[in-house]
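User: Fold this; tokens only.

Assistant: Input:
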Amino acid sequence: MPDYKQIAHERATINAAIRSFFVDRGFVEVETPLIVRSPGMEPNLRPFETKVIEPDGSQHAAGLITSPEYAMKKLLGQGMEKIFTITKVFRNEEAFGGQHNPEFSMLEWYQQGADYQGCMDETEALVQVVARALGVDQPESVERLKLRDLFLEHAGVDLDYDLPPTHDSTDTQSDRFYRIFLEKIEPVLQDRNVFLFDYPKYQAALSTLTPDGLYGQRFELFMSGLELCNGFTELTDPAEQRRRFEQEAGERKDLGKTVFPIDEELLALLGSVQTPTYGNALGIDRLHMVLTGRSDIEDVLLFPANRLFKR
């Protein structure tokens, strides 16, 4: 059985180190809502859905956030320049245990006037600071690899071009990308600490594109094979963001998932955000796992889903 007292003390140390790191760098900690009208548009995610009911019986469809991203970007559009938050986020249809839990802790931070390369520098520094606070061995230096180079080397696939078709005619480019990534790329990351950067534009999410228009200025950090974070040079063009939201809404509809309303307040404020601006979302539970050498997320949670729902 996990030592819950030790887990609690470790997590308190991690959160304190994170807060100290960002405050020392001039960031402001902010609080963002957990229940919103538009909890996320990503086709691969299924938010928890609920209703907000007023005393007069008026009902509003809502969901629990999959990320605080929309609210954070609204604060940027309102003039805040360096912000971070530590929050709970929620994703339905997640596994119980292993690397996943339906409710987990996320650190998300943004800085106007800097891009994803600067964010990688900051992310690496943050991991070192948290490791020192825990008194554990600091991770070795982190490699930086273009995703295209890895696909060429290990899968013989050039991401400059469309991916080869599969036997399943319903597969999208993203489906084919994930199949190759899981089969050919993920196994070579198991014993490495590496930033993978420049994802194909169909994987660009909310990032701006590289000058050639082929890739999103997006990175992910993998440590010992575990994905810890997802960072971007943020897209600040409201027209392009609307186009991507509409595309994602169509994909959600095709998948039979709830299509949430486009967040019009976000689009109205997005044009006020500087270019460049970076943002990063880091899973605190997974950082806790990596730095303490644990392989199951249940070993760093006081109340994992298995304990709450299956016992």
